[in-house]
């Protein structure tokens, strides 16, 4: 991996981790309006996204798949998704 690509992937990982941490910090089971499994799904999705964001710069092979599955879960379980209304 070239130095420029490594720096870019680290910068992107920091942005993803920062945003995911900010959103996940506001998740609360008491304030969740949906089903418990939806809550578990959305929190697991954020965990996969963060894990993939950390894994890409360090060269962990399943990291891109983790991000892909995390984003798919985020789309599926996000109760603000207009397709579920």
Describe the protein.
- This protein is an all-alpha fold.
- The chain has three helices and no strands.
- The chain has helices spanning 3-25, 36-58, 63-77.
- Helix 2 (36-58) runs antiparallel to helix 3 (63-77).
- The longest helix is centred in the N-terminal third of the chain and has 23 residues, at 3-25.
- The mean pLDDT is 86.
Oligomeric state, counting identical vs distinct chains: single chain
Shape call: elongated
Mean pLDDT: 86
Indicate the percent of residues in helices: over 70%
Strand content: under 5%
Q: CA-to-CA gap between the ends?
A: 43 Å
Number of helices: 3
How can the largest sheet be summarized? none
What string, H for helix and E for strand, traces the elements in order?
HHH
- The Cα radius of gyration reads 14 Å
Write a compact overview of the structure shown.
The protein is an all-alpha fold and 85 residues long.
List its traits.
85 residues; mainly alpha
Secondary structure topology:
Blueprint lengths: L2 H23 L10 H23 L4 H15 L8
Helix pairs in contact: 1-2, 2-3
């Amino acid at each position: 991996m070239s130095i420029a690509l490594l720096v870019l992937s680290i910068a992107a990982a920091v942005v993803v981790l920062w945003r995911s941490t900010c959103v996940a910090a506001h998740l609360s089971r008491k304030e969740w309006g949906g089903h418990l499994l939806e809550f578990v799904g959305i929190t697991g999705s954020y965990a996969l996204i963060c894990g993939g964001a950390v894994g890409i710069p360090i060269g962990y092979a399943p990291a891109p798949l983790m991000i892909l599955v995390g984003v798919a879960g985020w789309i599926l379980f996000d109760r603000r998704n207009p397709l579920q209304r």
